Request: fold
Amino acid sequence: METLIGKHWHHLPAAEVVDLLCGDAVKGLDGFEVERRLRHFGPNVLTPPKPKPAIIRFLHQFHNSLVYILIASAAVTGILKDWADASIILGVVLINAVMGYIQEAKAEKAIHALAETMGAEATVIRSGETRKIPAVGLVPGDIVLLQAGDKVPADLRLIQSRDLQVAESALTGESVPVSKQADAAIDRDANLADRTNMAYGSTLVTYGRASGIAVSTGDRTEVGRISKLISEARILETPLTKKIKKFSRILLYAILALSGLTFAAGVLQGRAAFETLMTAIALAVSAIPEGLPAVVTVTLAIGVTRMARRRAIIRRLPAVETLGSLTVICTDKTGTLTQNQMTVQRLFAGGGIYEATGSGYDPAGEIRPEGGGEAPGLAAGSALAETLLAGFLCNDSALVHEEGRWSVEGDPTEGALLCSARKSGLPVEDEKTRRPRLDSIPFQSEYQYMATLHDEGPGRPRSVYVKGAIEAILPLCATALGSGGSPEPLAPDVVRKEAEGMAALGLRVLAFARTEIPAGRATLEHSDLRRDLVFLGLQGMIDPPRPEAIAAVATCHEAGIMVKMITGDHPLTAAAVADQVGLTKPCYGHGAPRTCVRTGRELAELEDGALAAAAEETAVFARVSPEQKLRLVEALQAGGNVAAMTGDGVNDAPALKQADVGVAMGLAGTEVAKEAADVVLTDDNFASIEAAVEEGRGVFDNLVKFITWTLPTNVGESLIIIVAIAAGLTLPVLPIHVLWINMSTAVLLGTTLALEPKEPGLMSRPPRDPRLPLLTKDLVLRILLVGVMISACAFGLYEWELGLSGSLEQARTVAVNVVVVAEAFYLFNCRSLRQSPFRIGFLGNVWAIGGAAAMIAVQVLFTYVPFLNRFFQSAPIGAASWIRIAAAGLVVFLAVEIEKGLSRRKGAGTIGG
Reply:
């Protein structure tokens, strides 16, 4: 049995498959053989990967340089007996660890959600009897019966089928149910979506009946292979986590080196060991940006809230910033770029070509000649009127209007026909009442048409309307209805040429015809359609692009983000939609893709190197398999891109997990896709991705603004201590002062930058190069400049106050206030890293004004409240001291604005990498 696993079952005749696996399609397997195969192949379930122990996953959250710094900081503050600050820092560490643990646990749910997609029950033939069994007990060789509403329980090679249609969008991406034929001859290398003699586990039977033989169960099914791909896909570090990790590592080495040198210098100067150790500890504390993790988390959380308002739900916090780093978006077609509502766009009748305005199932719109002009006279009996009426009457679906939204109950194609008939203004509802249906021939895959019989009144011949594939309808027609309503000679070549033109535009084309049968007949037979039919016309339909998606693609291109369509749909349809949404237009800094469409079969022939080149230059990929989606994402990432992947089906889940940002559809998406994704769109709209990218860019900008704002404090504090040690002076600030400054300013001042509005032109600049550091050279120089100024002002005013008052406590109070006030002034410099606050407006962020006012109020308490004086070893100071402190802050502010002005003049970019 094991040697049969690799068979290309779709390529083999059904009888041969039965001989290989079962031997008898009538009796099926007996109980003994079922037990033997169940022992050999195992139950028909997906095996989840062995999870890491919970404690290991939790401890792994602490494996980060920044966390090491924070733990060391907490330990230091504990040594200094500052239990409040130590508790706060440890709280930040624990909160970050818990959040990381929860997000990692969510990723594993994708595998468990996938296991639930297999059918709960299966109808099988065993020992000659038809019985229902739990799907878990299915084995290869079982004969399985399917009917409408069933979930396919395993991979089946169909033996017999009657009008079978299977919804495979979750597995293949095909936008409409696929007609299946058991006797279809399929090429050995056919794509998954083209294997019409197979039914795959987890897909849904929407119409018809069939029997099939189970060829693969459990992990060996197509959905089982996808489960394996999900478990093997790596969870990548985001650009932000990579940069912060690198930044933290550099910071850690710098702190250790400075502290070690400080201790060594103190010992060499002959200072007491304990005093020298406390000085080194003070230096370490001063260099640690304790508020950084908290503000990063707050900034990302604010981004989550903003994105939720724009219909993007974030499931993994770092995805907020990663969205702003994207260089390429790989998007699905159906429902994301398109409306997921079939719409008739083009009609051919009576020799004329017409277009239908409007979109979706909303009947608002009109039928008019192509190229404009007056609306045609839709007189009763004309070719155009009859074509529209045929689509309305030969129809089993219904349009529904609920909560201000139109939808279809039934087949999307038939919904489009109902809508186009209503747009004509014809009294189609009256016609339906006046000409009641008597009988019908449902669509059958072997005939490729549907027909309905209608009563025309007492004594009158009864009318028959037929719709179907042009290959099936045209050979049955002898004449065509002219524009005036009279039969004319049929010109088959003209009709075929027009149908080919519609197909080239990606339209799905249906042909319409009519005939009559004698009065009194109440039944309709296939033989009634073998006589000469009258050809009425063609209707071409497509799932049209969302207007907002067209604008969003253009915005992404302007922002330098490549957009690529990856779909399981037909290449012609994919190309047509891609052209309409502008995917093949030039992208900022990239140019237009050289290749319009590549198919999954073409991708299968490419080696990794050639695939990487194709992934870069190609705009549209059609008929792709789950493995190929995964390979495309990996190829783009290997080229240095930060890639997002959108999807809604089971087949999308591996690529969603592998991508830097996986984006699942909230309305049409499967639970498997949602669990594998980082972001879920509540409206399934590409425009929401573009909006999320904009928010992500804003989040990154604000993070860089915060880091640019907070680091000068640490630089300044460190320089104060280093200068004091080098000069052999008493420390102007104590370790407890450093902790007070770092934590209070981060909360009251720094967090206000997380609320900074997005700057204009955010989506008009190219993506950040993922290889650039978190801070550019210009920003590093600015941080050093401000750090040196803060240190100089604090040290200078400390010495001034000490000389005037002779009080060490008052001098230290002045030094602390200088650092805080300078940070408050510098906050307004950092609201824009390039523009002046006078240009962007001081009132643009009221939180910054409120935060600065609150910080000054807190410093007044620090300076004048007696118990705080005792706790912090501070003391009240006079008005003259406050004037000198304010002047120091103003000097820092003006110096930074002068530096920004010089940078703008020479065109230097100062936005972080």
About this structure: The first strand starts at residue 121 and ends at 126. Residues 79 and 86 are 9 Å apart (CA to CA).
